[in-house]
């Protein structure tokens, strides 16, 4: 075989390999976007250690941190019910009540049904005080941001930190999400998104966002896609240690 033919073959192989890599990369980016697209059916599920307030209209003796009361029900004042290790809270008059894994509408309906033994038409509101999204790394003001909504866009949350720093690596924004006993780590490349505001990357309460520095060249290689048997908080600590 001539040298020219060998060189031509190698060039063709190189071009094909590069094209295949780009296609795979695009497919991965597309899948990542789908993982964090808007889900109209998503509802936050109550977890262990959540802080819950209970409001029953006109029934101060049944309420804890009531939004209907005239007194401050801020978390600072300790007026909340803590979901214990068994997934229960202690509700006045109702006693031990299992709440873990329930959405807020489901819990409200459960409490209303039980209270109908004593009240004709109970008006009940339930709120989780510690619904939060944490943002770490190359943003102007890293913070744990309290959210009321279940659906929050990435740029909305980043804007609350003051925006990205100059050295933010927008090619490797990491989002951590708890999935059962494991934590899923997803990479978002903001430089490949043609229309970032309308791509609608959706964050949920409990998510962590890590924005690495451009100096962390090996961050992607060392960060697994799944960190087994851990919490989002500890997984974030593991990844920050890789920066």
TrEMBL record:
Highest taxon in the source lineage: Bacteria
Gene3D superfamilies attached to this UniProt entry: Outer membrane lipoprotein wza domain like (3.10.560.10)
Domain spans labelled SLBB: 131-211
Signal peptide region: 1-22
Record carries keyword Oxidoreductase: no
GO cellular component assignments: cell outer membrane; pore complex
One BP annotation, GO: monoatomic ion transport
Family designation: Belongs to the BexD/CtrA/VexA family.
PANTHER family assigned: POLYSACCHARIDE EXPORT PROTEIN GFCE-RELATED (PTHR33619)
Protein name according to UniProt: Polysaccharide export outer membrane protein
Originating organism: Chryseobacterium joostei
């Amino acid at each position: 075989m001539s040298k020219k033919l060998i060189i031509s073959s190698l060039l063709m192989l190189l071009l094909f390999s590069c094209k295949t890599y780009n296609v795979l990369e695009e497919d991965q980016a597309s899948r990542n976007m789908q993982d964090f697209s808007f889900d109209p059916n998503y509802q936050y599920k109550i977890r262990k250690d959540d802080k819950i307030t209970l409001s029953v209209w006109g029934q101060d003796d049944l309420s804890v941190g009531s939004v209907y009361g005239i007194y401050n029900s801020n978390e600072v004042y300790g007026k909340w019910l803590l979901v214990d290790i068994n997934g229960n809270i202690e509700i006045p008059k109702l006693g031990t009540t299992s709440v873990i894994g329930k959405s807020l509408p489901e819990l409200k309906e459960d409490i209303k049904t039980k209270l109908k033994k004593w009240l004709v038409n109970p008006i009940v509101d339930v709120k989780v005080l510690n619904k939060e999204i944490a943002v770490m790394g190359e943003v102007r003001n890293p913070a744990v941001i309290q959210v009321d909504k279940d659906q929050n866009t990435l740029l909305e949350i980043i804007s609350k930190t003051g925006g990205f720093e100059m050295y933010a690596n927008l090619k490797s924004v990491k989002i951590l999400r708890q999935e059962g006993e494991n934590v899923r780590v997803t990479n978002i490349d903001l430089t490949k998104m043609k229309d970032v505001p309308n791509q609608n990357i959706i964050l949920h309460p409990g998510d962590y966002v890590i924005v690495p520095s451009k100096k962390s060249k090996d961050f992607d290689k060392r960060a697994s896609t799944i960190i087994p048997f851990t919490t989002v908080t500890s997984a974030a600590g593991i990844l920050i240690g890789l920066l």
